[in-house]
Every structure is written in C-alpha cells, then in structure tokens.
Sequence to fold (181 residues):
Amino acid sequence: MVLSGDEGHKKKPSSQDGYPEIYEAFMKKAPILLWLKDTKNNILKISEAAARLHGKSVDEIEGRPLDPDLVEGLSDQIGKQDRKVIRLKKPLLNITYSWVIPDTGETVYVRLNKIPVTNSKGKVTHILIYGEDTTEQKETEEALRKNVARNKALLKAIPDMIFVTDAVSYTHLTLPTKRIV
Fold:
C-alpha cells in the first residue's frame, strides 16, 4: 500500500498514519466475511461477521487454528484448498460451502474467495479469505425450483388445448382429438 505524503511524494504507511488502527477496524467491523490466515492454518485476524459463523467472538478465534471449529470433512476440504492457494500462488474464487452455526444449528451458505498474500520475494505468507452469506439467494433459488416443478405438474394435468387467433384477433379455443407433440 502506498500513501501520498504532505509534500506530494509517496511514502510507506507508518503507525503515525493510523494505518494499523484503520486495518484493525476494517478487519473487525467489515460487514463481510473476512479471515486472514497464516500458511499453517492459524487465524490471525477475523471480522465479526465471520466470527458469528463460528459462534464465537473475535477474541476467542484470533490466534487459533481453524480446524477445531469445523466439521471433519469441511476441515479437510478447506486445508486442501489452502494448500492449493499456497502451491499455485493464485486465488481460488467462488467456493461455496454450507456451514452450520454452532450456537443455533442453523445452516447457512457462504461463497468465499481465497487470495494468496506474498512477501517481496514472492513467497506466500498469508491467505486472505473474503466472502458473503448467500443463504437468502440459495433459499430463493430453491423456492423458484419448487414453483417451476409445481407449474410443470399443473400444466401436465390440464387437458390439451389450442388457442388460435385469427386475422381479426378473435381467439378460439379448440380441444384436439389427439395429442400434438
């Protein structure tokens, strides 16, 4: 990150610029799901929104490994994806998980992106994970699927009819004697 100085030249951020405080506030208060992990699966920083998925506070999660909070299969899947990000040094985008919130037992759906963070030598030192809760979208899609299926069933139950409009715009309804496909 580069900031403009008062004299018009560029300088690196320092604690006097308020950079660490801004960074901390952003990580904790961002209304999106955010995790910053090291390459050994420890959560270094987490947003409050992401901490709610774990059913814990930010302070209970930061500095700990992710694995103890996850279902075994999900933990393995996340570990494989993290290793892939580290190995390829490329982001993994639009990863969808179903996640059970421990406190409520509620299932939520999240879409996450994993971005490698590298040092000046190109070595991956961290993984930034961000995403969004897509539960409402998933529920809407499911309701739409059910409506489409119901409408198809209703249409199949209606006898075959043909609507014909002539040149004067009169509509005639006829029932065919055999099914037209």
About this structure: Residues 1-17 have pLDDT under 50 and may be disordered. Strands lie at 3-4, 10-11, 33-38, 43-46, 92-100, 107-118, 124-133, 162-165, 171-174. The first strand starts at residue 3 and ends at 4.
